[in-house]
Amino acid sequence: MPLTDAQRTEIEEHGQTTATTKRPTVPALEEILFRAHPVLDHGFVRVIDYMGDDAAIVQAARVSYGRGTRKVSEDTGLIRYLMRHRHSTPFEMCEIKFHIKLPIFIARQWIRHRTANVNEYSARYSILDREFYLPSPEHMAAQSASNRQGRGDVLDAETATKVMHLLRDDAIRCYDTYENLLDTDNGPGLARELARMNLTLNTYTQWYWKVDLHNLMHFLSLRIDPHAQYEIRAYAEVMLSMLEAWVPIAAAAFKEYRVGAVTFSATMVVLLRKMLAGETVTQENSGLSRREWDEFQKVLHG
Amino acid sequence: MPLTDAQRTEIEEHGQTTATTKRPTVPALEEILFRAHPVLDHGFVRVIDYMGDDAAIVQAARVSYGRGTRKVSEDTGLIRYLMRHRHSTPFEMCEIKFHIKLPIFIARQWIRHRTANVNEYSARYSILDREFYLPSPEHMAAQSASNRQGRGDVLDAETATKVMHLLRDDAIRCYDTYENLLDTDNGPGLARELARMNLTLNTYTQWYWKVDLHNLMHFLSLRIDPHAQYEIRAYAEVMLSMLEAWVPIAAAAFKEYRVGAVTFSATMVVLLRKMLAGETVTQENSGLSRREWDEFQKVLHG
Amino acid sequence: MPLTDAQRTEIEEHGQTTATTKRPTVPALEEILFRAHPVLDHGFVRVIDYMGDDAAIVQAARVSYGRGTRKVSEDTGLIRYLMRHRHSTPFEMCEIKFHIKLPIFIARQWIRHRTANVNEYSARYSILDREFYLPSPEHMAAQSASNRQGRGDVLDAETATKVMHLLRDDAIRCYDTYENLLDTDNGPGLARELARMNLTLNTYTQWYWKVDLHNLMHFLSLRIDPHAQYEIRAYAEVMLSMLEAWVPIAAAAFKEYRVGAVTFSATMVVLLRKMLAGETVTQENSGLSRREWDEFQKVLHG
Amino acid sequence: MPLTDAQRTEIEEHGQTTATTKRPTVPALEEILFRAHPVLDHGFVRVIDYMGDDAAIVQAARVSYGRGTRKVSEDTGLIRYLMRHRHSTPFEMCEIKFHIKLPIFIARQWIRHRTANVNEYSARYSILDREFYLPSPEHMAAQSASNRQGRGDVLDAETATKVMHLLRDDAIRCYDTYENLLDTDNGPGLARELARMNLTLNTYTQWYWKVDLHNLMHFLSLRIDPHAQYEIRAYAEVMLSMLEAWVPIAAAAFKEYRVGAVTFSATMVVLLRKMLAGETVTQENSGLSRREWDEFQKVLHG
């Protein structure tokens, strides 16, 4: 239930105002503008505004007087070239603004990306809603034995339910106390900036998050990775689909040269050459650690 | 002569494409979109794209689902409050992109503002035009005697003309050599990345410069200042008028609380209180240096 | 109880290794290096490393080959001049690194300053300690009636105790659940990256925070302000005293031209001139809002 | 001739002051501290100050109370892991400050890296020296035919000499005019901020440049690349050797996972798997453009 009826109405009304503009406009993105795309149990992502399109990347790379674009094939070639050679500045010329609702512990992970503009809903100034993230059973997993910062096996159904109840009960209880603390009639009327400390970290917050295309892709490349925590990956995946609606050529290049690309270390490059020359390479004679060797094998054999 | 006919045509054609958008749109800025506003002898500033308007500041400050704005008076009050108390993040939610043509020595001063996105015309890749800045007589000034980094008296007409000729002759000669160095038929066909080193610092370059509203105002507040070099101030003044077309409420607050505002040091505040209480304050008993005292007097007596 | 015995020993051992260096060294800061200065009930700040001193500011401003400093009076004058005229780059040439322990809800406020480097203790990777912030009675205050984001009257002793118990009970209960969730023997052995969501926002976290002198002063000027939340101000005050040990001349200039300085709006400057000329100025004829007028009066009359 | 005798003396005197510090200290870097390492004909790089060492990376990654390091093999493993997985924040915890003298056209390329602190010698405030970069014959190259932003064949000796004379004559003439313009006795005494526009882009400037280890490595990875312009690569190479003196473990990881590493696109990874499975892959059936295919072949066959 990411939205109340009142919010839905507000969004719909907002979407009914249109205007004429000379700016680059992307119909596929206009179509989903303002719409809340649900993520997790109460979260969402929605695009609030954007600046630029695929052509704006080309235009900036050429520092053009006019539209700056030529044939589609040439423009595509240029965008792919820029992506491949990490010429990042033309991608910085596009900008997008999101409204995102997300659990606080994920917001804390997210905010570490410093190259974005943020306005967060202030619990110093306002009162947070009674909404907390509770993982669905298929995302309730045990600590990974091999990876100190990852998940292992999914919990069995019964245990998952128990965990869910524990999380829910504590979150509710803490929120009840929060409300009580704020109460000026029957409670102490505690300052909001203090009362908020009683909330649990799965409480939802929300923010406006504005970022340029280069930094958005950097964020996505890190957070769409299988090693990223599932809860932030869920947001990244939705945002990748928004990226594809917005700048389809850049998005395709991004998937080719970043998301799906693989970096081989100096040692691995030497090993590759040996393998292609028919030499037998084993972990023992490779010079790679066990961990690196496993990563290497995984890439080579899909 | 900031534009060739071909450039003018390109710009005009670009401005004829319009589209329908749900995004915030500012008619006053649409009207001047793409248009080159001349600065100095060959330079210009033109707005290429923008994101957001006054209402977007309010919307971000409120982290709204819909438009987020209320009564005009309330919105104005909020924007002024945010400006006064240096709550900068809502202003970061608006973005603007300029195309600017400027002399290299000014570009070097400008680029020190790091919180913007830049794509500069590459003299490694392309050939620069034969255009250099030559100050008009009223801006030809002697070194200031009192301020090591400022100008003093304007040169007399005859001297100014002589200086202009010296600057022009060297620039032309250097540009001629540049062209000769690049010449693959009758010259050595030197690499562009090398040949460019022969140009003088008043040669014009151009770039796309994209910045958020908060950082634009910070740039303007520093560069519109009477202590800023005239040549960069000329750009800042044009951009301030563009700011006024774009976000009139924020621009008015900016002029009230930044451009026209004055900061008094801790000591000055104490002195002010004494003066208002009728005490006589002199430089000798003020605790201010001669220089600070002069600055103080200048503010107090306009 | 900000430190365990083991931590205290580790810190002491660390402080016993000394080396000879040609780098600028500040004896007053060396003396407190590594030492944990307590803040709030379980928090602390300690300086871990630093680069530069007052002379390094002067040296950078002069782009010197050698030490770059001259007479103390000249150097002091230059630093004050740079501070007064907001020439920020020479101050960026000094850097300091802190180790800070602080409640999560304060860490969330703090992290909004993006121009610093941060390494936070990861609750994805490790287990957080059973420590949460509980305000002391004199900091337990009701919501302010006049300021939506501030505190009003301090709670009476009895109510403060009740509030403290509510906060403590919820924090303990949530932490107990957290431990239980992580338990691989008698609990579900939930992944750390999930279990952490059950903690309350007053749980302590810690990080390494590295920042240059310019950005540190910007942070301090905002967070030492009476409008800042008490809990972050407590850290800012300790850090200001560290600033004074590190760069005494810059710190004095900072207090004179920033902390103790006051900015008057364009309208206020005009009013001030009228008042000094003997005219009677009232809120009604001032053009200031009631709120601005009150702020103005407060500055003028101390 | 990068240094005058006076400068040499200043540097030497500076290097004679030593102090005792508890901070991490790197003897190999102390040894070269302040020393000017020549680059190009009149340029240099010298390390002025530094913060942190290899152990400081480990310490930050562990958010330690004490030294934070364990066995050398464990620390090395951690640093390599952080580098491989692009965990950049621990590398941001080290900082280094350089004094660099370089031609203006290279400074313009360099400054595009925005994540550093810079104090440049001001030609608004001071007078630049009569020193300009003149490429040595082996670096005088024709424009590349295949790469729009690169060099092709080296010029023959006679042509190189001619080019050198052209560059030198224009630079000298422009500098003579500059001096004449500044002359208050026999010239117009033009303001320095104006006179500087007459200098050529190969004139030397200098700055203090301070950067964290993560951003230094990013800079080096881009500028040490064979596609980077020779003149900036010359600086990058000297700075890489300084990196090796400072943080040998991080530097080795940097060479293994960045400088010597190769990124394969999604398509290339699929092709590689086919090749290792014995399939014949040609440009025609590869799905790669001619250019990408050539790059791919070059990596695979060294």
UniProtKB/TrEMBL annotation, chains A, B, C, D:
Tell me, what is an example of a GO biological process annotation in this record? methylation
Q: Which residues form the active site?
A: R223
Catalytic function, reaction form:
dUMP + (6R)-5,10-methylene-5,6,7,8-tetrahydrofolate + NADPH + H(+) = dTMP + (6S)-5,6,7,8-tetrahydrofolate + NADP(+)
Chain residues that bind FAD: T89, R112, H113, R114, E120, D212, L213, H214, H218
Q: What is its EC number?
A: 2.1.1.148
**Cofactor binding notes:** Binds 4 FAD per tetramer. Each FAD binding site is formed by three monomers.
Q: Where do the annotations place dUMP binding?
A: Q109, W110, I111, R112, E120, Y121, S122, A123, R124, R196, R223
Keyword vocabulary terms for this entry: FAD, Flavoprotein, Methyltransferase, NADP, Nucleotide biosynthesis, Transferase
| Highest taxon of source | Bacteria
State what this protein does.
Catalyzes the reductive methylation of 2'-deoxyuridine-5'-monophosphate (dUMP) to 2'-deoxythymidine-5'-monophosphate (dTMP) while utilizing 5,10-methylenetetrahydrofolate (mTHF) as the methyl donor, and NADPH and FADH(2) as the reductant.
**Record family assignment:** Belongs to the thymidylate synthase ThyX family.
What is the designated name of this protein? Flavin-dependent thymidylate synthase
Taxonomic lineage = Bacteria, Pseudomonadati, Pseudomonadota, Alphaproteobacteria, Acetobacterales
The UniProt gene name for this protein comes to: thyX
